[in-house]
Amino acid sequence: MSKVIVIGGGPAGMIAAIMAGRNNNEVTLIEKNKELGKKLKITGGGRCNITNMRDIEVFLDKIIVNHKFLYSSIYSFTNLDLLEFFKKHNLEFKVEEDLKVYPQNDKSEEIIEVLKKELKKSNVKVIYEKKFKDLLIEDNKLKGVILENKETIKGDKVIISTGGMSYPKTGSSGEVYKILKKHGHTINKIYPSLVPLIVKEKWIKNLQGVSMKDVKVTSKYSKNKKIEMTGDILFAHFGITGPVILNISSYLNKMLQEKEVDITIDFTPNIKEEEISKIIRKNPNKAIYNNLREILPLNFIKEILNYLDIDKKPNELNKQDEKRIIESIKKLKLTCIGTRSINEAIVTSGGISVKEINSSTMESKIINNLYFAGEVIDIEGLTGGYNLQIAFSTGYLAGISV
């Protein structure tokens, strides 16, 4: 039996503590907040998109940073294993668009309550409102942790599951990176990911609040690589957001630190240009926006026409102006000049280098008996339940390995 200390009571930390406790270890879970799962509570707008039901091979393709590192953890505790874990507590789930999985009652609190029950069942001691300040290392051996006010807790093994730097109000402030760097770990540069994008074009702010479904967004994210995604978009005063933009941001965030990036948006990917031309001229004596409102939001079309400075009826429209309207619908170019701050990012890009972690156990290759789980590691998936599954899977593997 080992004395195991888990730092951070998010999904990765809770499942790690549960599994370590099940293996008859003496486990202490330290959480800096007054409650467990503070970030988990707000994920998915409080509905908790817990995982995704894609086959594991396809699932791994949705992990865009260091997905090979996750083979052992994801296969050790799959999406099906995760749901089975909760179903034993009579928790029911539903599968929605894009194979996203939510609790049947849309309540993240139900997920947290099950985890808390399992922590109690596994005899895990939970300490609240204590900040982790350092590792306790004596004679080059890990002996426990140091908390605020120089309080020490002795232990044989430590699991770090503090999260990254996104949503800092939930406790994931990123302070742990300085501690780990001091002890020899490499911390890859931190970027906001799954984050709204800021655009240069000022007229876009007039579209604030306009949302559109199933638009296609295309961009180059390196010299020879292009990304194309389809999903929902929402215009904001600073630029653009919505699921498809958040996912695109994961490919553009590093590049945007150095230069502007162009994106192209097709607002009607399932409607050809010829068909749009017919719709524009469908009722020749009506306003153009009245004809186009059958395929696009009225306020969007009005703003596009205003931006193009076109105030004509279809029977007055020349071919050049018609082409400009169609291009604004099918090939609107916007210039991204940055991302919103990491405070608005869903996940952190960057973190502890996976080269310094044993992917089969989640143990540090730098410090014996130190383990990692969750977003604190340089691993990152798209939206859709992938990042929560990463947290649970890496936490599970760390927990059974201590």
TrEMBL record:
Check the record and name the Pfam families matching this protein.
HI0933_like, HI0933_like_1st
All copies of domain RsdA/BaiN/AoA(So)-like Rossmann fold-like, residue ranges: 3-399
Keyword Ribonucleoprotein present in the record's keywords: the answer is no
UniProt keyword terms in alphabetical order = FAD, Flavoprotein
Q: Which SUPFAM superfamilies match?
A: FAD/NAD(P)-binding domain (SSF51905), HI0933 insert domain-like (SSF160996)
Task: List residues of the RsdA/BaiN/AoA(So)-like insert domain.
Answer: 191-347
This protein is called: Flavoprotein, HI0933 family
Q: State the species of origin.
A: Tepidibacter formicigenes DSM 15518
